[in-house]
Amino acid sequence: MIKLDSISKHFDVGGHSVTALDDVSLEVPKSSIVGVIGASGAGKSTLIRCVNGLESVTSGSVWVDGQDITQLTRSELREARRSIGMIFQHFNLLSSRTVFENISLPLELSGASKAEIETAVAPLLELTGLSSKRDQYPAQLSGGQKQRVAIARALANQPKVLLCDEATSALDPKTTQQILALLKDINEKLGLTILLITHEMEVVKSICDSVAVISDGKIVEHAGVAQIFMQPKSDVTRDFVNNALHQRLPDKLVQRMTRSSSGACDPIVRLTFTGGSENQPLVSSISREYDVDISIIQSSIEQVHGLSMGFLIARLSGQQVDNALKAMQKHQAVNVEVLGYVV
Predict the structure, then answer these.
(1) What pLDDT shows up at residue 263?
(2) What residue spans define the domains of the chain?
(3) Nearest residue to 203 via CA among 244, 238, 242, 236
């Protein structure tokens, strides 16, 4: 449904060229939810603005529902945007208009009649849980309710694609989960394709099918969400995963860790369990069989894209540590990563 083909975007800042996007390629399949995560300044907001033509690309092409929007005229682009809904971090509601009137605005601008507007908006109020707020003004709403209005407004023209630019960043954790649940519900009920920009791995973990990690204008990794959590390949991705899982090694341990296994060193390992393996007694059985001590530093079980995953960081010591690690690695549903070594 969405395809970015080697797009680059350069800005002229004070006579100097600044690269915001560097040869980015990404596909968002129909009816899927794909997240793009990155730190501030990584290029993610520029990327999403290129998808709906708010920013023109320097090179490459942007395909949405079979159209290369980089080749459209202004009038053609305006027409194409009707099938691309967008919601933002700060809602962008008109304070002088009621909930109903804010949602109906795109329909009014497209020339719809009052009867057509009523027919289109009423189901959106029901879908987003706003029926009782129909005649209220933005000042009377909570942040979560305002974002629901923004979502309903984005759906007014029955778009095929919904772009979300940090849509939950201004919300508290509980409200964030409610909005994410609403987006997932909309995705399933309407078959809507969603491209979601965020800097929060918790958002990705909750509803995305896959996630692309962007850093310095480049996609450094793109995979299914479970795969990203189980086997992050880049340092940037690993940092996001660790923050989402609240996995931070004690500072005193980090100071003693080395990359080398030379000498009498104990490995610090991260074990990631999936597919039901989080309930298997792997640690205790390996400890008994190879006579190794396994000191648990951190452990947790998380729900990632509806999949139960277990995460454990431990220190291994004993004469058969290498054999114990090899035995762990033979379990297909367990990923073993050596983080470092300590004496």
Answers:
(1) 67
(2) 2-231, 245-342
(3) 244
Q: Give the 3-state secondary structure of residue 166.
A: coil
CB 274 within 8 A of CB 307: yes
Domain 245-342 has CATH 3.30.70.260: yes
pLDDT of 164: 95
pTM of the model: 0.85
- Which residues of the chain carry a pLDDT beneath 70? 263-264, 275-280
Q: What is the pLDDT of residue 264?
A: 65
Give the full edge-to-edge strand order of the sheet including 16-28: 16-28, 2-13, 59-64, 67-68
| Helix (H) and strand (E) counts in the chain | 12, 14
2-231 CATH, one of 3.30.1330.60, 3.30.1440.10, 3.40.50.300, 3.40.190.10: 3.40.50.300
Q: What angle do CA 90, 92, 95 make, to 5 degrees?
A: 120
